[in-house]
Every structure is written in structure tokens, then in C-alpha cells.
Amino acid sequence: MSLCQVRESGRAKHVSIKISVVGEVEVVVPVGFDRAQLPELLEKRRDWIEKTRSRLINAAADTPEDWRVKKPETVSFRWQSDELAETAENEVWQIEYLKGQRDRTQCIPFADNRLTIKGNIENIPACQAVLRKWLAHRAQKDLSPWLRQLGFELALPCRRISVRGQKTRWASCSSQKDISLNYKLLFLPRPLVHYVLVHELCHTVHMNHSKDFWQLVGEKQPDYKQWEKQLKTGWRYVPRWVEAS
Questions:
Q1: How far is the C-alpha of 99 from the C-alpha of 115, rounded, in Å?
Q2: Whole domain around residue 54: which residue ranges?
Q3: Which strand (E) or helix (H) includes residue 117?
Q4: If 114 and its partner were Cys, which of 48, 110, 135, 181 is the partner (CB 3.0–4.6 Å)?
């Protein structure tokens, strides 16, 4: 079986297994869980894990070439678009690559929706890393105010808002009501992003997925079930280079 990462969570009541779009396996365990039990548990779930990894990897292989490109020429955001089509976009940035100092790579944004990657542009991981850093900045700038306003409107305020590049989650909420957003949300259509924000704000009241939690979600967003279903394949909007690490 492929190697997996183990993450301890104060919210977890039982062991759960999550698989990213690129086939990475993450095992979430409750605080204090005896990790010596994991080999047996993973062996029992071996068939499901392998089948799910295979399905995700094969699905990714069938997507358009521009989705799998490692060194993009453009970055297209959909978070302001209500259209669910994968070709829909509302903000496109053109990328140019300029050779510079080999020991430093920078991503420089310009007002005309143009990004310049300058430095060791032959180093693909370095180019991807500075682009992801820029994505995190954009998500903090664009999505954090939206989350804050939505929390005010729904009477579900959160405390701190941070941005990360989680592999298997679109966002998370701590017991202190701190919410962490995934910068990959920028690539999703607006209705899906809205649902993720509502979902996490409801976790400021219920730190689980209990009946009470889903009842609160339904109160705040009555049509949430259709978006919960759509979100299961939300990865298809995210370019492969964003998933690289």
C-alpha cells in the first residue's frame, strides 16, 4: 500500500481516511489514538483505498492537457462566477517567465492582470512554489473579507482567518473558531465557495457533522445538499500544478 500521512485532530471522534486528487492518502486520528492500531485498520480498508486512488488518478489522466500543465501560461479564477462549467472563468492572469538570478525566483504581479516569474525559471518546483505563494496572498485578500461579511450576515462570527494549501480539505475550523481557507477555492465557481464558507461558519457552533450541525447548515443555506454533492468533484477545477508540492 502507498505511504500515507497521519494527522491528529481534536475534532475527530474516530479514524477517517482522506485521499487527495493526486492520490495522496491522509489518515486523521483522534487525539491520543494508539497508532499501533493503524496497520490493521488500513489493511481492512486496503481495497477501498486502492480503488479510490485508482479512480482519482485515472480521472485526472482523462482531463484536458491544460489542466495537467506543470508550467502554466495563465491562471484562471472562477470564484466570482456563478457558472459551473469547467471552462467558465471570470479573472485571467497572463504569466511570463524571465531568466534572472538562479538562486532566487520571484512572482511579480502587475495591475494589468499580468504575472512575471523571474529567476531560475528552469526550476519548475520553484516556479510553482512562488505561484502558490501568490495564490495564498490573493485568497487572503479576496476570500477573507467575504468570509468575515458572511459570518456577520449569518450571525456566525469567526475569530482568526488564515490561508493554507490543504491537500484534502477545502477549509477547516478550530475549536477556537479560527478558520483556515484553502487557496484552491479561488478556482471553484462562486456557489461552491459560498457553500464551503457557510459550512465552516456552522462549525463555529458545532465542531462535528452531527444532526444538529446539518440542521444549522440547512437553516443558513437551505439548498446546501446540491452544493455538498457538487463539491465532491470540485478538484476538477484546480490545475495540477497547484496540487504539486
A1: 14
A2: 4-61
A3: strand 114-119
A4: 110
Which residues lie below 8 Å from residue 185, measured CB to CB, with a gap of 6+? 79, 139, 143, 170, 171, 193, 196
116 phi-psi bin (left φ>0, alpha ψ -120 to 50, beta other): beta
CATH number of domain containing 213: 3.30.2010.10
131 and 37 share one domain: no
**CA 68 to CA 84: how far, in whole Å?**
20
Asked if residue 128 and residue 44 are part of one domain, the reply reads no
| Judgement on whether residues 101 and 221 belong to the same structural domain of the protein | yes
Please answer whether residues 190 and 168 qualify as being in contact, where contact means their C-beta atoms are separated by less than 8 angstroms.
no
Closest Cα to residue 23, out of 45, 43, 64, 51? Answer: 51
Report how many domains make up the chain.
Answer: 2
Burial-class residue 158 by CB neighbours within 10 Å (0-12, 13-18, 19+).
Answer: buried
Q: Which residue has the cell 475549536?
A: 175
The pTM assigned to this predicted structure is 0.76
* pLDDT digits 0-9 by tens, 27-66: 888 888 888 888 888 888 888 888 877 777 666 555 555 5
Residues 6+ apart with CB under 8 A from 216: 202, 205, 206
Q: Residues 130, 117: contact at Cβ < 8 Å?
A: yes
Last residue within a domain, chosen from 61, 77, 105: 61
Q: Quick check: helix, strand or coil at residue 13?
A: coil
What pLDDT does 181 receive? 98
